[in-house]
Every structure is written in C-alpha cells, then in structure tokens.
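User: Here's a chain of 143 residues. Predict its fold as tokens.
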Amino acid sequence: MNKVILMGRLTRDPEVRYTQTNNTLVASFSLAVNRRFARQGEERQADFINVVAWSKTGEFCSKYFKKGQQVGVIGRIQTRNWDDDQGTKHYVTEVIAEEAYFADSKREGDAGASAGFENTFGENIANSSEFQVTSGSDDDLPF
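Assistant: Prediction complete.
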C-alpha cells in the first residue's frame, strides 16, 4: 500500500502548468512538514516535501492555497528519473496529491471558515450530516 498523509505549511504559492499532450492542469508546491521531535537544545526540524496535484485537485490547490497556509494532503509517493542534456541522471521523489484540505484555523479574509473541514472541491463539510456531532451517551456511538 502506498499512502501518505501530510500536514504542513506551503513554502511558496502553487506553480501551475499544463501538459502538452492533453492540456491537463498540474499544480506543484512544497510543504514544510515539522518533525515530531526535536533534539534537546535544538529547534524542531522540518522536511520540505514536493507535492504535485493533477486536474481538479490541482485546480483547487492553485486557486485557494497560498504561501504560508497550513494544509493537509493525502496521496501517494512517486519516484521518477530522467537524463539531462549532459547525460546526468536525475532522481526525484514527490507526493502525488489525491486529496487536499485547509488546515488553518481561518482562511485570510474569511472569518466564517471552518478549520480543516473543507475538501478538495471547496465544499464545506463541517455541517454535513456525515460529520454531525450530537450530544448523548456513549450508547449512541456506532462502535
């Protein structure tokens, strides 16, 4: 199984391009993902992970994601390689985003945004019946 779940801050605005063959949108960006632990006396380290989002997911990311925002990405790891003009082989490992979410407490300029509850297609799912939280006893839980 190849599944990755990341939460981090965008290091730059998504960069958009289109494929030459069928004009498909591709958005690329990098996430700074904090490591869970820091060595004593040192600052917490971060990993900078390249993310690629295709089609509708890429369109969503390019439209709504901005540098500095905290976002969540679910996807898969992909490695690829190529030879440059000088014959040097290059390798890259990146995450192919299948889902993308806001993870900030508020989006800038939108006081009514729900934290982390907006899906890839921009639908606010915080008030969806699927995610409704009702008060009651533990007997109401489905597990």
